Each structure stands twice: as C-alpha cells, then as structure tokens.
Amino acid sequence: MSVLAAIPPMNSQFNINITATYAYTSIWMLQGNPTTSNCAAQALLLDTGKDLDAQTYPKRAQWARGVLLWNVLQTQDVNTVEKLQTFVQKLPWKSLERQDTPINHADFSITIAGYVYDFAAQTAIQPTASFTVQGQPTEDQLSRVNGDARAALDRIYTNGQGTPFISPSRPFC
C-alpha cells in the first residue's frame, strides 16, 4: 500500500486532516532526502507483514496501515516506528479466523508513543494521565493546586502524552 492510499483512512481514524504534502515532508524528515525516484523505502514504513493479508483482512490491513502512518508522522522516531511495525508484523493474525471486524483479543494491544493501539478492536486511545503522577510536584506545589486546576492539569498531561512533535495543521519549515 502506498503512503497516498493510507492517508485518507488515517485521517478518518484519527479525525485529522493530514495532506499528502505534509505526510511526505514528514517522511522526508524521518528518512532523509531520497537518492532515487523509487518510493519503496516510504512504502516499507507501512508494511504490516505477510500474515496481515489485505485480501483476507481488508479493513484490518487498512486500519493497521493507517496506524503505522500516524505513528511515523507523530513520532518522527525510527526506533518507535520499527517497534510498532515489528509488533504488527508478529501478531497472530490467523488466530482471528478471518474476522475482519473489530473484536476483543488480548494479544493485539500495545502502548507506544502516548497511545494504546488495539489492532483486534481497531481502536487507538490516549490513556488518561495524572498531573500528580507524571509531573511529580512537591507537596508544597500540590498544596497550591485546587480541584479545578488539578483537573485542567490532568487534561493537559493526557493530551501532551500523545501530541505530535510537529502540528498536523502546520508543516515543518
């Protein structure tokens, strides 16, 4: 599957509006300037492996490729991209018995880059974060934060853990 073909499903899955220009600029930032007109290296970023066959699982394969592209664009980190892709490629897809709709299956979930991706249920969720746990404020700092402020800080910490490094609405210059 090409990057161009993965953009619309990714946009739908994450309720965003990434353009092809933005996606390719981000991939260029990750991989560097292509030395040829061959786009194989870009397409390989979306490789879900031999067991997630688009003929057997068209919806599941499309969803997984959308997640892989989102992860590439969100993290801009080769190690994170490889970790998620390896996870997807090693999943026991045949254990789903040709089911192409969201189902519960414990082995298909991973937490990476601020999201919990469940490839069986086809969900991507930001886990709730806590200002007091992640921010580790001192007792003095905590004593100055009321309930409303703590709730606002929890929302900020939750949103911050899955926020892309580069805003999808503004290409990197």
Overview of this protein structure:
The protein has 173 residues and is mainly alpha-helical. The protein has one domain. Helix content is 48%, strand content 6%. The chain is built from 8 helices and 3 strands; from the N terminus they run αααααβββααα. It has helices at residues 3-14, 20-31, 40-44, 58-75, 78-90, 131-134, 139-143, 147-160; strands at 109-112, 115-118, 123-125. Strands 1-2-3 form a 3-stranded antiparallel sheet, with helices on one face. β2 and β3 (123-125) form a beta hairpin. The longest helix is centred in the middle third of the chain and has 18 residues, at 58-75. It is globular. It starts with a helix and ends in a 13-residue tail after the last helix.
Q: How is the secondary structure organized here?
A:
Elements: H1 3-14, H2 20-31, H3 40-44, H4 58-75, H5 78-90, E1 109-112, E2 115-118, E3 123-125, H6 131-134, H7 139-143, H8 147-160
Antiparallel strand pairs: 1-2, 2-3
Helix pairs in contact: 1-4, 4-5
**Oligomeric form:** single chain
The Rg value, from CA coordinates, equals 18 Å
State the share of residues found in helices, binned by percent: 40-55%
Read across the widest sheet, the strand sequence of neighbours is: 1-2-3
Largest sheet: 3 strands, antiparallel
Give unreliable regions as ranges: 163-173
**Number of helices in the DSSP assignment:** 8
Class derived from helix and strand content: mainly alpha
How much of the residues is beta strand, in percent?
A: 5-15%
Distance between the termini: 28 Å
